[in-house]
Sequence to fold (147 residues):
Amino acid sequence: MAHYTASLEIARPASELFSFFTRPANLLRLAAPEMNLSLLAAPEVIEHGSRLSWQGKRWGVSQKIIQEVTLFLLDQQIVIEQKQGPFGHWIHGHTFEATDAGTRIAESIDFSPPSGMLGYLLTADKIRADLEKLNVFRMNKLREIFP
Fold:
């Protein structure tokens, strides 16, 4: 299994940033345009057990993705796991840690490349490089929303 991590510090309280991440519409705002992502179904605010349904197109392949919130610790951590989608395995965690300057948001993704022909083209290294590029967009967007 492959792993990717990134972090960003924002001068806002953890409760405010956590609240932002609990709204699927905000997660959509953080998605890079090249993901062609749309939210098909989700609650307005997620909690433990919530399901999110997305439609995306990446690497020329259109996919429906169903995710479930598998860990939800108020103002501390959210973990979302892919239940259906292109990856063999995908668990995306967000941790919110108070710092002297605000809050450190740490992202951690454990994943396995897709199976089949797509998996031959998309190695873990290629996916990790793509995640890094997408994360730059995400971090810039967060800095724009929370200056």
